[in-house]
Write a structure and sequence with these properties.
Blueprint (H helix, E strand, L loop, with lengths): L5 H5 L5 H4 L19 H23 L1 H20 L2 H4 L6 H10 L6 H39 L10 H31 L14
């Protein structure tokens, strides 16, 4: 995936550019661990605020939403505080599916439009959160472990690797759990047990 045109911007692919303190060229490229673009620093901070709002909503929406929002805040807050926010930015493509979910429950659209948005949500959720994001996470972990094994300088505190592994497992597990709920919801709609316009993920 090249993590979204990293080579064209910096001359080196991600996640290698972020992991190697020497920029991967044997030089003194100490800025190799800096954010690739300004958005790599800004977007995680915005997502942190989004997560805090989700925690408040989770108090009403239930434990599942609250756990997901809490995990999001921990990850974004930790990465922003440590100055590693750019490492998690590629993962934020997950939020694309949330756009369709929010649009599907809008009260100014027709039922047919709502169903279309729900289909877009389910398909984008599967492609991005079940296929692409686990791949990006695993690639990051394996690249870091390979660089350590080969003796390259690493731009992260030694404990960050374990943080990424633990919360990667948690987040990917949550995404698979939500995918399971989406499949159950699709089955309820097809069986007529639930109205097609119902767009939330609550069990009924």
């Amino acid at each position: 995936l090249n993590h979204f045109a990293a080579v064209e911007i910096s001359g080196e692919a991600e996640p290698l550019r972020s992991i190697r303190c020497d920029g991967g060229d044997g030089g003194d490229g100490g800025d190799a661990s800096l954010p690739l673009t300004s958005l790599h620093r800004i977007l995680p901070a915005i997502t942190l605020g989004y997560g805090l709002c989700d925690i408040l909503e989770g108090l009403d929406l239930g434990r599942d939403f609250l756990i997901h929002a809490t995990a999001l805040v921990i990850v974004m807050g930790t990465c922003c505080e440590l100055g590693y926010s750019h490492t998690v930015t590629p993962m934020l493509i997950m939020e694309i599916s949330s756009i369709w979910l929010n649009l599907s429950s809008a009260n100014f659209i027709s039922e047919t439009t709502s169903v279309v948005f729900q289909l877009l949500f389910a398909s984008s959720f599967f492609v991005i959160r079940i296929l692409i994001v686990p791949y990006i996470w695993l690639e990051w972990v394996l690249t870091l472990m390979r660089e350590e094994r080969e003796g390259h300088a690493i731009c992260f505190h030694w404990s960050f690797k374990y943080f990424v592994i633990v919360f990667g497992i948690i987040f990917n597990g949550l995404n698979f759990y939500w995918m399971y709920k989406i499949i159950r919801k699709i089955k309820r709609k097809l069986s007529g047990k639930e109205k097609m316009a119902e767009a939330d993920l609550k069990d009924r």
